[in-house]
Amino acid sequence: MNSISHTLDPDDARNAAREVRKRRLQAFLFVVPLLVFIMFAFVAPITTMLYRSVHNPTVANLVPETLAALEEWSGEGMPDDTVLIQFATDMKRMANERTSGQLADEINRALPGMSSVVKSTARTLRRVEDSDLSANGATLLLAANDRWSDPATWRAVRDAGPTYSSSYYLTAVDMERTTDGGIAPRDTQIYKQLYTKTLKMALIITILTILLGYPLAFFMAHASSGLANFLMVFVLLPFWTSLLVRTTAWIALLQTNGVVNSTLIALGITDQPIEMLYTQFATIIAMTHILLPFMVLPLYAVMRGIDNSFMRAAISMGSRPLGAWYKIYLPMSLPGLSAGALLVFIISVGYYITPALVGGVDGQMISNIIAFHMQQSNNWELAAALGSLLLILILVLYWLFDKFVGTDNIKLG
Amino acid sequence: MKRFPEYYSFWHITGHYGLRVTAFLVLLFLMLPILVIMPLSFNSQPFFTFTEGMLSLDPDAYSMRWYQEIIDDPNWLLAIRNSFIVGTIAAIIATVLGTLAAVGLSSQWMPYKRLITALLLSPMIVPLIIIAAGMFFFYTQFNLVGTFTGLIIAHAALGVPFVIITVTATLSGFDRSLFVAGLSLGASPVKVFWDVVIPLIRPGVISGGLFAFVTSFDEVVLVLFLAGPEQRTIPRQMFSGLREQINPTILAVATLLIVLSAALLFTLEALRRRSARLSAGG
């Protein structure tokens, strides 16, 4: 545009620029409705999740005065009686508002065992008169449970206070804050292990889909187009079949008294049913089955475009088939292979349903633990922190995918 | 016995048959799980394996009782109805908004094309559990959790990338001069869009809509987080069935779904052929 505009007179140039702006605006207007929709339906929720991973106002809303009073405290020895009295008053109010359970959950995360202490203390203080509480609150609190005389308890209350905190990310990478304010690894390493296990399982699934998918795609790419189209139905039908249907099929197959075990017993291979369902093995085999088409389809598309005469030429000149494949064919099929492998790996890292249904304890992946913290332990902030880390992982993988494979040629079916 | 060229070694011939056998076994692995559960759904016993009666083709060993149970169970009927309602509305929203956006995105004048495309395709990439958690936090503020509206919005967002991809693909074969020709003959842009563009990209729009429908129809993670008991869909009902008391009714539902996917596969294939024919002819 610029190279042309200086040969035009200023009025024409202005008109041309206006025309370009108009066209750009017209094109953009088509996208606006969807953009607004996606912003509300998808972008805002993801942002909320990221925000949630550092934002937890629960304790700050429940006991604001206690937290304010605790600010004076050094963290060593017991806090002043004013703090204790304030806290005792807060406890009675929470017991009446039935919110002490929320506080119990929050403090219990930092200091296991505190849940019952908070709840029982709240029950005890509920029966005390207000005047009595403002006079002898500290004594009553200490009498209710001796854990209130432990400075560690008060540090836990104080540390749960901030509305914004990085502590969920620390937990998500198995670290914790020490009493002197430093950061140290936790005694039990859960989440790092879980991420490693997830990546390892995704890798195994990817390798299995390559081992199964490559020969199939190769065979189909070199079959007559009639046979290839016919066989394609057998790849596409499972691909189109509901994920839950395929998971159901694996449950039916792998059950203790399911098809596989009955067959093995009938063939005399084993006397007793083998435990296959609810194991890591079940997750891996079911996910390999579910994700195999994602490997076969891009491989087939690339292999279809490779001229077979290269291989024939190499073999006619004395190369062994395997040698010809390795030196000639493999490099040419690499775009399809990397597309399939990255696709399968990315999808399996974030998988939830199949591990949840067939995985048992052993076969759970990172998504399942996020769901656990969302639904069972109600630790939403930790779920959000684990989810944010997973999101970063996926985006990095996707960036690699885009860099090496390109997303322009994503095709469906 | 097939004749091989003379320069083929023993290993090449072994490899030739080895490949055939491997390809056959892999296809078997792909199909067998699906093929096995279909006859099992006609088991007259509540087992997940073939009984001796079934193997000896005894008619008494087969029955339609699990299909009857679907019809008799109000929960399943509600789930089936909900799946169709949510899937249809979500697909319509995704198709209308997605088709418009695809038209804009395929214009050479579109600003920030790469960034916006990436943004609109991202619901396909982000793991469902993250989307579910985020939507749960965000939709709670608008009282959308446990409502049809919330579920439909969520499912429509998931369907959008499929519409964008399929419609963009058909638009790439679309001759833009047809649009200009329509305008030069005095038609309004809306009329040209409706009378010229839409008929030509219709196969892409329909298959995009079908993809969006299937995405919703199969989706279970978001339903688990966002739907209340009133919004339970087929996958949700299957999920709880598989979690709690496994019952062959699920095999009957699965069989029906397999038949449905087969029908869908052939529809899409027909659309693809039509689209290929159109672009080859045009």
TrEMBL record, chain A:
Primary location recorded for the protein, binned into one broad class: membrane
Subcellular location: Cell membrane
Taxonomy, superkingdom: Bacteria
One GO BP: transmembrane transport
Membrane topology per record: Multi-pass membrane protein
Keywords assigned by UniProt, alphabetized: Cell membrane, Membrane, Transmembrane, Transmembrane helix, Transport
Keyword Transmembrane helix: yes
InterPro entries membership: MetI-like, MetI-like_sf
GO CC annotation: plasma membrane
Stated name of the protein: Polyamine ABC transporter permease protein
Automatic annotation (TrEMBL), chain B:
Single Gene Ontology BP annotation: transmembrane transport
Pfam families from the UniProt entry: BPD_transp_1
PROSITE patterns (UniProt xref): ABC_TM1
Transmembrane segments: 21-42, 84-103, 115-139, 145-165, 177-194, 206-228, 249-268
Cell inner membrane found in the keyword field: yes
CDD domains (alphabetical): TM_PBP2
Keyword Cell inner membrane belongs to the record: yes
Family: Belongs to the binding-protein-dependent transport system permease family.
Protein name in UniProt: Polyamine ABC transporter permease protein
